[in-house]
Write a structure and sequence with these properties.
alpha/beta
Length: about 120
């Protein structure tokens, strides 16, 4: 992606301490609004598993949820967002690649990129 000037990135919270009362519809609504408003990139984060003693994670800082928090899988989330947007770039702030088989991760990312019209960035 060639950048001629500043860009604006919006981090969407694809996690919550408890399930949102709207079933995550507001997440998708924010993505559509960001696309319509001209935001350049949407970013979601990754967290596959958590142990019960998150206070003992070395260097992790403070988690926004407890061990039972709701964390949406980022590539699936971006796939749904891709189907509801037209131009905004789709990105992971981080993806924990070591917890996924390499070939499956590569195929998932390539598929998302193709079906979104080349809008995927991986963090």
């Amino acid at each position: 992606m060639a950048v001629d000037g500043p860009t604006l990135t919006l981090g969407l919270m694809n996690f919550a301490a408890t399930p949102p009362s709207d079933g995550w519809r507001s997440l998708l609504a924010r993505a559509r609004l960001a696309d319509a408003a001209g935001i350049d990139r949407i970013v979601v984060v990754d967290h596959l598993v958590m142990g019960d003693e998150i206070d003992k994670y070395d260097g992790a800082g403070t988690f926004p949820t407890g061990p039972d928090g709701q964390w949406l899988e980022p590539l699936t989330t971006l796939g749904v967002i891709a189907g509801q947007t037209e131009r905004v770039r789709l990105s992971t702030g981080i993806i924990i690649a070591a917890l996924r088989p390499a070939a499956v991760l590569a195929k998932s990312l390539a598929t998302l990129d193709v079906l979104s019209g080349g809008r995927v960035d991986v963090g």
